[in-house]
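From the pipeline queue, job 12 of 40. The input is one protein chain; the requested action is below.

Action: predict structure.
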Amino acid sequence: MAFSRDQWAVILGGSSGFGLATAQRLAEQGASICIVHRDRRALLAKIEPEFEKIRTSGAQLVTFNVDALSAEKREEVLDQLAEAMGSQGRVRVLLHSIAFGNLKLLAPEAKRSQGAAGELAAKLGLEAGAVQKAIDEVFGEGNAQTHGIASAPEYSAKHFLDEDDFSRTIHAMGTSLLGWVQGLFSRKLFADDARVFGLTSEGNEVAWKGYAAVAAAKVSLESLARSIAVEFAPYGIRCNVIQAGITHTPAQDAIPGSEHMRAQALVRNPFGRLTTPQDVAKVIALLASDDAAWINGEVIRVDGGEHISGASG
């Protein structure tokens, strides 16, 4: 589908990963782009060339390096966005891609036995530390098959999730979507046929260590998205959530044990590769098309079959 320059996409968290890939994809298809991101000045030199790709596509681009979680900053962004869009511009797509959460355990880890590497070393008559080091080197070089016997991820033994951590994470990665939807709606900035998207993960069902607060946020986001899909439908607003497979992004890198997560996904995935931000961006662009107007309130997996694959190896 080709979009017009009067059709805008607002991307919350659009300087990397899924948000940036979606902004670039929609810009290539003709939409105008508004990116709200929060990055340190030192990172801007790396980010700006990515924004330039959007501009060179011919798309209009406005960016705001502000805290998207601040109600005050949100109002300022919406004021300036309305001015940039002009009288004819309307928001066709709103993507919530904010990755800001607490990644800590709930409790200290229990001590583990020597594991498979130790048993293998004993069988071979070798020193256990040397065998573990060799396995870890092979794993570090990209052999996903060794993830089960590589050294386990390390977690903080001092800092654990508390209720405030959950509250902040649930708001940042979940319920903060509502303020943006209501803000655009109250200002009449949405198009007659608008699409709202959130991002979730397999952590909505599977318990990963260190991911409890983010998982709670994802489930909250999915619940909120269903309510948006029902209550805003009379105004032409559809809302869906994308469940991406494991994807190597800056946000995924921050998760404790991220290398093990990627290795497990590579082994499980029927196509033998990770999901990419571009995979997700293409699906969001499809769902933003006229032909996808009857898809509403869904959680849509974009993972190449990773979620349903029980086979490994």
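Job complete. The chain has ten helices and seven strands.
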